[in-house]
Amino acid sequence: MAQVGADVSLVARGSHLEAMKKNGFWGGGEEESDIKVPVMASENPKDLGPQDYVIITLKAHSVPSVVNKMEPLINKKTTIVSGVNGIPWWYFYKVGGEFEGTRVNSVDPGNIQWDGFGPDKVLGCVVYPAAEVIEPGVIKHLEGNRFSLGEPDGSKSDRAIKLSKALTEAGLKAPVRPKLRDEIWVKLWGNLSFNPISALTHATLDVLCTDIGTRDVARKMMIEAQLIAEKLGVKFPIDVERRIDGGAAVGAHRTSMLQDLDQGRPMEIDALITSVQELGLITKTPTPTIDIVLSLIKLRARSANL
Fold first, then answer.
1. Catalytic residue chosen out of the listed positions 21, 59, 94, 187
2. Which of 45, 143, 194, 277 is the most exposed place for a label (fewest CB within 10 A)?
């Protein structure tokens, strides 16, 4: 976006901030030339001031602790773009029906984001690109270029259209979806099951999706999640078997949860798994397999002091 003229600022800290201040932001991939972009970067949001859009790509468990720190970035016209994995904290805002306004405690304990940001400021986003940090300030793009956008009420708002245009001009795909929650669940389907199974077994996607035992565990978790989502009005465009086959086709990929475990970082357990268990309780849907895997991955995290 910065390459095509957008005024982009980054909130960063530590070695990443120092690298970007010195060298700019570096990005690239195997099939594209490296790009170097000078950007405004600071650890202090006060240095950056109010923004038109604030795109949050932190891990879900890291967001509540920075809500207050983000206040200088936000004014009455600011849109918060939530590009965070898992069930979003705003999920039940303008969803309609009996669950309207329900809060998801596992991803927003104490309603910190609901009360701090306000759900009316949120524009949903499902992030598909895969990337990895090569070194501070240097990101390697592995695959994908789609950022699906969607209003909580499904409308095609001016703010969604403007951001879609800005992303598209930067060479990305940014469709505005009337039913973004459907996409949230399709992506979550894989994250819910593949991530914890890989962290527990240290298996890559191609292995865990084709091994008879782990494939069956993933299938059962996904079926339980589908029953919950369908009670909430979600429609799945593919079936469970095709979704698992899609995971296998990715190849010898180490999931983000496995990478976090290996590198001693907190894993996205609550956003990807506990939240689905919570929605099971809300919709009165049993989640026996999810419950078992959740117990195992929580113990694995405690054993690793994460």
1. 187
2. 143
